[in-house]
């Protein structure tokens, strides 16, 4: 899978931009605050229909403009796909080959991307919310069904939490309504949990392979799904449903007291272990960074295994955050495999270590000029 061209209209500081990508390594080179990250953000938004930097879509629209659009052509093994995302103050519109898509799950997955930014090095030591978001974004690209079930789960969860608050205020319970909400919560939540467990098993395999290579076979990486429900990596759909129902039964009184749903995918967590020791708690900064790098790079082979196509890799000023050894392993993992878009303020981290000739775009004050390396 590769992106052959990109067109931006009123996106961030790009009023009108059209780029063609003829090579598999594209570098956006320039000083800070010139628009390099905006270009990567546009590619990410084309794939995911949202920004990785903000939840406010109005921020993507150039000042005093009514809407912004991102368009690009994806080349796959057997065909090409034209993607189009339009951001307005009222929401967003998506098109595939000029046909408007009403469901997010119909659009996401057409173009698979992996974004690696400096903040992703905090994947290991950051908040549980960050790791849940990582799971949802990555599985959602591979499985439209997961994305659908997640949206439905979040909708029912919001309704259930709202009703629990109403119960505390009115003291009158419609037990039938609460039972229906709980059944729906279990139905969609169990499907989300099942896919998460399947994904983590595969992620652990690929991530451990990379981690052992980076650590010169000195360290073994394991990943555990720490759930608010009693689960194991071998849990079946049936056993997940049963465990989920039991967990909700045990927390029923406490939920009514605290007016919130206390168990489910929205409360779960990822744990990382090196040689059996929790990296989040006991790992060095170097181990935490190596773990984050291994996990992010593992997605490349995992997505290829699941979709039959390599994803597109977006590296936003990551090279300067890694030491020479980790830079080398990153470049070895991607070279010859995936189309890569990279932002940097200097070529020192790249040119000496890569055998592939890059396409370089110079970025200055929202203007992009192409030039051969």
Q: Estimate the global geometry from the Cα principal axes.
A: globular
- Overall helicity: 40-55%
Low-confidence stretches: none
Distance between the termini: 23 Å
CATH level 4 superfamily of the largest domain: RecF/RecN/SMC, N-terminal domain
Mean pLDDT: 89
> Spatial order of the strands in the main sheet?
2-1-4-5-6-7
What is the alpha-carbon Rg in Å?
A: 22 Å
Binding site for ATP: 30-37
GO biological process, one term: DNA synthesis involved in DNA repair
Main location: cytoplasm
Subcellular location: Cytoplasm
Task: Quickly describe the structure.
The chain has helices at 36-48, 104-107, 128-142, 144-170, 175-214, 237-258, 279-282, 285-307, 324-334; strands at residues 2-11, 14-20, 25-29, 67-75, 80-88, 91-96, 99-101, 113-116, 221-226, 269-274, 277-278, 312-316, 340-344, 359-364, 367-372. With 373 residues, the protein is α/β, with parallel strands linked by helices. It has two domains: 1-112 and 313-373, Rossmann fold; 118-308, Glutathione S-transferase Yfyf (Class Pi), Chain A, domain 2, CATH 1.20.1050.90.
Describe this structure in words.
A hairpin with a 2-residue loop joins strand 1 (2-11) and strand 2. The protein has two domains: 1-112 and 313-373, P-loop containing nucleotide triphosphate hydrolases (Rossmann fold, 3-Layer(aba) Sandwich); 118-308, RecF/RecN/SMC, N-terminal domain (Glutathione S-transferase Yfyf (Class Pi), Chain A, domain 2), CATH 1.20.1050. The chain is built from nine helices and 15 strands. It starts with a strand and ends with a strand. Helix content is 43%, strand content 24%. Helix 3 crosses helix 4, helix 4 crosses helix 5 (175-214) and helix 8 runs parallel beside helix 9.
């Amino acid at each position: 899978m590769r992106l052959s061209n990109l067109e931006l209209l009123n996106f961030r500081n790009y009023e009108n931009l059209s780029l063609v990508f003829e090579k598999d390594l594209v570098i956006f080179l320039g000083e800070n605050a010139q628009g390099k990250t905006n270009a990567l953000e546009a590619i990410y938004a084309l794939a995911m229909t949202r920004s990785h930097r903000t939840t406010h879509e109005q921020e993507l629209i150039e000042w005093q403009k009514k809407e912004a659009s991102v368009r690009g052509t994806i080349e796959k093994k057997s065909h090409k796909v034209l993607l189009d995302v339009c951001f307005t103050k009222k929401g967003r519109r998506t098109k595939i080959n000029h046909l408007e898509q009403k469901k997010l799950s119909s659009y996401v997955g057409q173009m698979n991307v992996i974004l690696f930014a400096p903040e992703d090095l905090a994947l290991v030591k950051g908040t549980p919310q960050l790791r849940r978001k990582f799971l949802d974004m990555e599985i959602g690209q591979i499985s439209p069904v997961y994305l659908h079930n997640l949206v439905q789960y979040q909708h029912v969860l919001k309704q259930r939490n709202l009703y629990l608050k109403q119960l505390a205020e009115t003291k009158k319970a419609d037990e039938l309504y609460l039972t229906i909400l709980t059944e729906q919560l279990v139905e969609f939540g169990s499907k989300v949990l099942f896919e998460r467990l399947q994904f983590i098993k595969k992620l652990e395999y690929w991530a451990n392979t990379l981690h052992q290579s980076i650590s010169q076979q000195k360290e073994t990486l394991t990943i555990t799904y720490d759930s608010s429900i009693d689960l194991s990596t071998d849990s079946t759909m049936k056993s997940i449903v049963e465990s989920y129902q039991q967990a909700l039964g045990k927390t029923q009184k406490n939920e009514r007291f605290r007016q919130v749903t206390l168990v489910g995918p929205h409360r779960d967590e990822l744990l990382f272990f090196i040689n059996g020791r929790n990296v989040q708690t006991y790992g060095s900064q170097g181990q935490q960074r190596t773990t984050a790098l291994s996990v992010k790079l593992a997605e490349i082979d995992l997505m290829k295994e699941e979709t039959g196509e390599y994803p597109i890799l977006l590296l936003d000023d990551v090279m300067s955050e890694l030491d020479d050894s980790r830079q080398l392993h990153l470049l070895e993992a991607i070279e010859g495999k995936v189309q890569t878009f990279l932002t940097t303020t200097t070529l020192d981290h790249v040119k000496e270590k890569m055998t592939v000739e890059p396409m370089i775009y110079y970025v200055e004050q929202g203007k992009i000029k192409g030039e051969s390396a």
